[in-house]
Amino acid sequence: MITVQNLQKSYGGFQVLHNVSLTVARGEKIAILGPSGSGKSTLVRCFNRIEPHDAGTIVIDGTRVDQTIELTRLRCMVGLVFQNYNLFPHLSVLENCTLSPRVVKKIARAEAEDLAMNFLHRVNIADQAGKYPIQLSGGQQQRVAIARALCMQPSVMLFDEPTAALDPEAVSGVVDIIDGLAADAITTLCVTHDMGFARRIADRILFMDRGRILEDAPPETFFTQPRTDRAREFLSQML
Ligand code: ADP
Ligand code: MG
């Protein structure tokens, strides 16, 4: 589903990603771990071209992500949910979910509303459809952000620290949602600092340090027998 080869990215003179290569199968659930500043957010942002990369290739579902790609099409294909949700404060929950399908995909209002209610049900927040973001808890806003991304019917979903502001019950809700995505063959990449969450969702763990992927392993291997000293040190600090 995703093939990345020798990805490089710098900000000014500072190289953030060094020759990152990876492949991800359709429906796989990947957790990306690593210290702050290791390039995790930059990597996932390159996938939907919020950040353009400098060298190397990214191919998603057969489409090469480069300067020639039509961004609206890419962003329909690859959904991104941020840590701080980024909901539109002046729009209701339902309107947050229908805006892009209507404007970008030109779907009629009634159809967009049906689609949105379907995804709001799926993330268990349909009863709040008429409210505004400020009237919801953090966990509820997170569900709306996920539903909003799903309304574009992406084949890849990127999450950047989705549980950072959530209580344990809301975290379990996100685990269930991500499991549901995999059942629908949606591929998930999730940047997280939450080791328990990573263990619960991931088929595979990528461990990054200073712009490189140092480990790529199933969770049981990564958490019990990390290969590198850097990962061992990182995990010991998390205990
Ligand atoms: P992580 O998500 O792993 O914490 P980031 O990908 O956010 O790491 O950042 C990696 C490095 O790139 C950090 O040193 C950060 O300061 C730098 N960086 C991130 N975004 C920018 C930017 N827009 N301009 C300049 N430097 C940036
Ligand atoms: Mg980050």
From TrEMBL:
CDD domains: ABC_HisP_GlnQ. InterPro entries: AAA+_ATPase, ABC_ATPase_HisP-typ, ABC_transporter-like_ATP-bd, ABC_transporter-like_CS, MetN_ABC_transporter-like, P-loop_NTPase. Gene3D superfamilies: P-loop containing nucleotide triphosphate hydrolases. One of its GO terms (molecular function) is ATP hydrolysis activity. Pfam families: ABC_tran. Keywords: ATP-binding, Nucleotide-binding, Transport. The keyword Zinc-finger does not apply. The keyword Iron does not apply. PROSITE patterns: ABC_TRANSPORTER_1 (PS00211), ABC_TRANSPORTER_2 (PS50893). SUPFAM superfamilies: P-loop containing nucleoside triphosphate hydrolases. Belongs to the ABC transporter superfamily. This is Putative ABC transporter. It comes from Gluconacetobacter diazotrophicus (strain ATCC 49037 / DSM 5601 / CCUG 37298 / CIP 103539 / LMG 7603 / PAl5).
